[in-house]
Amino acid sequence: MPTPSISLRAFGRAEDLDIALDVDLLQADRPALVTALLDCCGGKSNAAFWWSRPVGVRIGALLRLVALTEETDTLGVVLRCVQADCGERFEVELPLAELMARAPAERDARGEHLRIALPGGRFATLRLPTGDDLRDWRTRPHASTADAVAAVIDTLRLDGDLQPGDAAALAEAIAAHDPLVAFSVASTCPACGAEDELPVDLEGLALHRLAQRQRGLLLDVHQLASHYGWTEEQALAVPPRRRARYIALIDNDAGGGLP
Ligand SMILES: [Zn+2]
Question: Residue 58 C-alpha to ligand 1 middle, in angstroms?
Fold first, then answer.
């Protein structure tokens, strides 16, 4: 179950326009963006709390923010068939409630650790990665992927006799326990019929949707300010549904009146 104790409001207030979402998400400091969004829409003053949450809890909360903001219960995602001679792009709708329910439970977030069986009768105990870990790893670039993976495992390892070659089994165990982090969706390509497990960057998708929302809000304010002379504060004080009706009226004026 997700964590019902964490309260969030919809994204869309004046202060939300200050969060720098108009960036290239591939280059962006995503951990900082996610924390800023959750902190802003979670009442502010609790950034340390959000940094300390497991990555999957943060993604689950970000998805809840999209659901609240867009008043939707599904998330559309465009997938691309991985078959070499196909490459078809197709869209699927992911049910948000089901996704959010897959975030780690709060008891795990508080420190229920993963005990992982390894070859040769060995065991290792790991904790789940948190926002603080992501922030820390970003500041310490590594020469190779193998070095980076070793550093990650070293941070998360609580005990256990690990050997080179355990990384894949450990990553698999974490992914199974915290499925939103390395999320994938089983799909059938509508063009070639291939059945594949396709990766979905849920965090990137949610950030993209909220960035779109922010651009939309700026446009709304621009239109309402230009047309009615409202201030930013006045424009954003109008509830979203009513604001959309004013924008439609302005668009109708610009287009020569109602059809
Ligand atoms: Zn295909």
Answer: 32
